[in-house]
């Protein structure tokens, strides 16, 4: 936690929708005049695409079938923790980009599967925004949530998460369904051990639930739309959350537990604005007073 230089950490598996959620945050930052600097979790992968393949082959030959981008060891989590710590203390730090596809290659001038050079954050930011796989990991080496002031989980139910990943990886990154299915299978061990434990560390989880049949996610022809889904929003600590205000403002919503509200999928953006804007305002106000 850093009152002076706050950090927001948005955590989700690959294809969960963290980049989509970042868009909503960007709108709030713009409207509220908040200057944020951002980190993508993929910037902290340990290997470029070619070296990752070599490392995977080496581990396979040695009988390790559980290694993947979800594994702690495939990522520079200590470096990430150092960036969180440094930003919290001084408001400075650095990041880079992992380039996934040709569009990003054109944007960053680096081929797909490579990293850009490290570059310092712009000076004078109000907060740091992280979005990625590992922003709330606690293990023997790191404790990331202790540095973050607001932790958000983006966790569609698993069939939907797979559909979102398969469609995004096919359309934007040029992979086949079979290749994405292999990746999902290979990542399952680390999904259970490295990804999901984080969602008990998060302050708020947004869980999209389809209300159409997704029994076979591998053959779904499109991603269930917002109108074909509900979102469960769960607050770790419901104290101070004005549920009656939220339920009255978000048409069609209801409380399913004392700390959870269910909203129609199409109201996700509105719900995020209503819930997150005052939280972000408070973080920035307190940072200016610290
Ligand atoms: N609320 C939503 N409603 C409908 N589609 C969504 C929603 N959230 C995400 N998607 C779709 O799911 C796919 C994956 O989303 P996104 O790129 O945001 O995932 P991600 O978590 O950032 O993935 P990665 O970390 O691997 O880059 C995209 O095609 C996106 O349009
Ligand atoms: O989205 C991901 C993790 O969040 C990617 O799977 C990871 O960054 C590796 O990318 P690629 O398979 O394109 O080299």
TrEMBL record:
Domain of life: Bacteria
Phosphoribulokinase/uridine kinase domain span: 7-215
InterPro entries, alphabetized: P-loop_NTPase (IPR027417), PRK (IPR006082), PRK/URK (IPR006083)
BP GO terms, sorted: carbohydrate metabolic process
Catalytic activity: D-ribulose 5-phosphate + ATP = D-ribulose 1,5-bisphosphate + ADP + H(+)
Recorded GO MF terms: ATP binding; phosphoribulokinase activity
Transcription regulation is among the record's keywords: no
EC number: 2.7.1.19
This protein's record includes keyword Nucleotide-binding: yes
Key words of the record: ATP-binding, Kinase, Nucleotide-binding, Transferase
Record-stated family: Belongs to the phosphoribulokinase family.
Protein name: Phosphoribulokinase
Species name: Rhodovulum strictum
